[in-house]
């Protein structure tokens, strides 16, 4: 665990040497959305003609759905088996994560059904067999992109492969390793595709606003506002109540203790950036190292509360915008699919968008045309997703430490009251920073 934390700390330091490239992508998407909205409002016909840009980006995302689903499900099943073998802590953590992720998905569905985001837009459903009114050059370029692979058969195959590899034991380890390398390759391609997000967002937003006017902008703003409010209520009401009832800890005091991590997450739009700091801070808070060592890394893959809320609300937004709202049965089956498909892809740019597209493809392929709108506002919601995921993992660590009686309540009280503040030098030493000063290393050895 220490070496993993050390690698994360070194990677984090390396990333601080310059502005992260994802910041440029973030800025480009924002500018593309604004420019697309302006073009759609001022020149509606021009905006409509830009629709192939959004369609092409959607086709690229569709191309990656099956590989992403296959790799993440196979490795996810392997991770579940591995975590469950660590005993009571691992089993309890997995049970809690599955329950909370499911609960978060359900909350997203409830809120989505209450506010009906995207209703009234009446966008044209996506039809892969219908030829768009474009010239031969556009048809040729869109035809280069491979067709999608059916999602549900891929999901079934991945589940069977995952359990088969479990049964193979040590013989299956090299195959799992190879699939892990394959997953990194798939995600690298997905990240490359996401650099085209500004182009796709510009075309999609311009086309939608050109067709529907200001109503599209209002609908997207409503979805973003509802998502932020839902995440805030989930943290304060659900997680806060659970934390108070089980551990007697005030959620606001815990959030104040993690304030620097929140700033880091907000600036990077990823909870992964704060992983080594969360481990160090939870240990300093009084949770035992074994509990922290199992709960935090497992939670980063299986406890994605903010992502769960996002997936369901975004799905309902797209369905309503297309004028084909999902009935209760379709919503429940979509929820089950999202529970399975969202595991194992934490912290990967574009993985949430691919999971959303996979769910829509599996249930109603004609809804894929609305994913272009989500591309335009996805980055605006990424901070709330990351902050909610991070808070959920912090709360989970305290709860599981309390349940297994591996937490020092006196230390918790001293730390949260401010009488025993967190030492940044301790975090750096525990993080395994290679360039630590000699006096720091000596101090660490003396402390140990």
TrEMBL record:
<feature type="transmembrane region" description="Helical">
    <location>
        <begin position="300"/>
        <end position="322"/>
    </location>
</feature>
<feature type="transmembrane region" description="Helical">
    <location>
        <begin position="23"/>
        <end position="43"/>
    </location>
</feature>
<keyword id="KW-0813">Transport</keyword>
<feature type="transmembrane region" description="Helical">
    <location>
        <begin position="140"/>
        <end position="165"/>
    </location>
</feature>
<keyword id="KW-1133">Transmembrane helix</keyword>
<keyword id="KW-0769">Symport</keyword>
<keyword id="KW-0472">Membrane</keyword>
<dbReference type="InterPro" id="IPR036458">
    <property type="entry name" value="Na:dicarbo_symporter_sf"/>
</dbReference>
<dbReference type="Pfam" id="PF00375">
    <property type="entry name" value="SDF"/>
</dbReference>
<protein>
    <submittedName>
        <fullName>Aerobic C4-dicarboxylate transport protein</fullName>
    </submittedName>
</protein>
<feature type="transmembrane region" description="Helical">
    <location>
        <begin position="217"/>
        <end position="242"/>
    </location>
</feature>
<dbReference type="InterPro" id="IPR001991">
    <property type="entry name" value="Na-dicarboxylate_symporter"/>
</dbReference>
<feature type="transmembrane region" description="Helical">
    <location>
        <begin position="63"/>
        <end position="81"/>
    </location>
</feature>
<keyword id="KW-0812">Transmembrane</keyword>
<feature type="transmembrane region" description="Helical">
    <location>
        <begin position="185"/>
        <end position="211"/>
    </location>
</feature>
<dbReference type="InterPro" id="IPR018107">
    <property type="entry name" value="Na-dicarboxylate_symporter_CS"/>
</dbReference>
<feature type="transmembrane region" description="Helical">
    <location>
        <begin position="93"/>
        <end position="115"/>
    </location>
</feature>
<feature type="transmembrane region" description="Helical">
    <location>
        <begin position="334"/>
        <end position="358"/>
    </location>
</feature>
